[in-house]
Description:
The protein is an alpha/beta fold. It folds into 3 domains: 3-69, CATH 2.40.50.140; 75-233, Rossmann fold (3-Layer(aba) Sandwich); 245-295, Orthogonal Bundle (Ribonucleotide Reductase Protein R1, domain 1). It contains 8 helices and 13 strands. The protein has helices at residues 106-118, 133-148, 166-169, 184-191, 194-207, 239-242, 274-280, 286-295; strands at residues 15-22, 27-31, 36-41, 53-58, 63-69, 75-79, 84-89, 93-99, 122-128, 153-155, 173-177, 216-222, 225-229. A hairpin with a 2-residue loop joins strand 12 and strand 13. The longest helix is centred in the middle third of the chain and has 16 residues, at 133-148. It is globular. The model is unreliable at 1-8 (pLDDT under 50). The chain binds guanosine-5'-diphosphate, magnesium ion and zinc ion. The site of guanosine-5'-diphosphate has 15 residues, from helix 4.
Amino acid sequence: MNNAHHSPRNTNVRTDGLVIAAFGRHYLAETKNNIILDCVVRGKRSGVACGDHVEILPTTPGQGVIEKIKPRTTLLYRSDAFRKKIIAANITQIIVVVAAIPSFSEELINRCLVAAESQYIKALIVLNKADMIVPTRDAAVTLSLYQELGYPLIQLSANQDINTLIPYLKGNVSVLAGQSGMGKSTLINTLIPKADRTISEISTALDSGCHTTTHAHLYHFDTNSQIIDTPGIQEFGIHHIENENLAWQFVEFRPYIGQCRFNNCRHGHEPDCAIINATKAGKISDRRLAFYRRLKHQTYKN
Ligand SMILES: Nc1nc2c(ncn2[C@@H]2O[C@H](COP(=O)(O)OP(=O)(O)O)[C@@H](O)[C@H]2O)c(=O)[nH]1
Ligand SMILES: [Mg+2]
Ligand SMILES: [Zn+2]
């Protein structure tokens, strides 16, 4: 005899779901049969994120309770000095969207790269608005630094032709990062057919009571590829990474780590600093060392 008969819980069958939208207190989860359930979480602090695979106990039609978060491959946070918030789970790639106009922040690029490295997530840079030929050419020169570090750089026009990006999307759960004005929404609109954006429009309406829309949305690009759009990533504070292993998240620093004279070297103005020496020798760019120091909240003169 099946033990399940003794448990009232099991009168409702649990179902697996993918969290496709995360609000403060409730979530939209998609089941294997493509049914969208409006879910809450048992307990006070949930920690459920967009991109999570969960087990749901259906309650009333269209609704359920998230009972369990399945193990995650990756987890992306943003943070300031006071708070750490989950951005998304099970991401395989961060796509940093920049454009020559309005000007972009290289610091945000560096934050994204650090966050990606710290979670073993791939990162790539999309230089949008490539139809603005002259400013784009200058921006590409600036961005060649990151290309040399091994991060792919793709030029495209989000409102015209995004074909160069498609091979990078395949098989990935990508999160889009970028300041406002860079063309993230335009890119999503081009990539995701209208029908698949309806859910996000519904949830945006649900969310409109809030002052800040901090919800994230997962879109299906194809059966193996998803894209997560999240407004919270614009600033992308990485306070939680800054004090631990920050140098390791700068890929080109790695060969020199552990080679400084002092093993607690901050790569500031210590003597015999391997990172500083590598910078003087042209192996590390001045800009990356400056970003490192800025993230460490150091203000040294070179
Ligand atoms: N010229 C040009 N303008 C673009 C392109 N993509 C987006 N834009 C414009 O850039 C502005 C900001 O785009 P939006 O998608 O709202 O940026 P978001 O704030 O990152 O979501 C809008 O006026 C878009 O029409 C592009 O490829 N070329
Ligand atoms: Mg937008
Ligand atoms: Zn050092």
